[in-house]
Specification:
Distance between the termini: 33 Å
Radius of gyration: 23 Å
Structural class: mainly alpha
Number of strands: 4
Shape: rod-shaped
Largest sheet: 2 strands, antiparallel
Order of helices and strands: EEEHEHHHH
Oligomer: single chain
Strand order of the largest sheet: 1-2
Length: 154
């Protein structure tokens, strides 16, 4: 899970910090090093995170945690469904205009419609996941910039 700091995490809390009231299935992030380790992982954990950074107020930490969890768990289904519908409509319209409505030639080319629909559904899902990961990385970069600027001022 966290290859850079394998001994730092255990059951949602940092070992060198006092235990806080965090559910066992939530990953508590208590400092910037833990946040860097979580953000630097190629594959994110399925466990939701809870930011407990001393630089943030409780309300800000909760709001940022919710945004990070939402972006991390985005599955791309919405964009996949839109791609599927668009591919179905465009391919069906093209086949109907080229081969006619209710013809044998159209019936023989319906697998093309199915293949195009499935291909663009998968493409939309992949693009949706990639866009969510990009939004997550931008959110993490903004958070790092804000927190490092705040600690440098102090």
């Amino acid at each position: 899970m966290f290859l850079k700091y394998p001994d730092v995490y255990k059951k949602g809390r940092c070992l060198n910090q006092p235990q806080r009231n965090v559910a066992p299935d939530i990953l508590a992030i208590d400092n910037l090093e833990q946040l860097r380790a979580w953000a630097g992982a190629k594959w994110y954990s399925k466990r939701p995170i809870a930011l407990r950074l001393p630089e943030l107020t409780e309300a800000d930490a909760f709001a940022i945690s919710e945004r990070l969890n939402r972006q991390r768990s985005d599955c791309g289904c919405s964009l996949g469904a839109k791609g599927m519908v668009c591919a179905f409509v465009v391919t069906a319209a093209g086949l109907i205009t080229h081969y006619g409505f209710f013809t044998t030639a159209l019936l023989w080319r319906l697998p093309i419609l199915l293949a195009a629909t499935l291909f663009f559904a998968g493409l939309g899902k992949a693009l949706g996941i990639a866009a969510a990961r990009r939004r997550l990385q931008m959110e993490i970069d903004i958070l790092f910039d804000c927190l490092t600027n705040q600690t440098q001022k102090e």
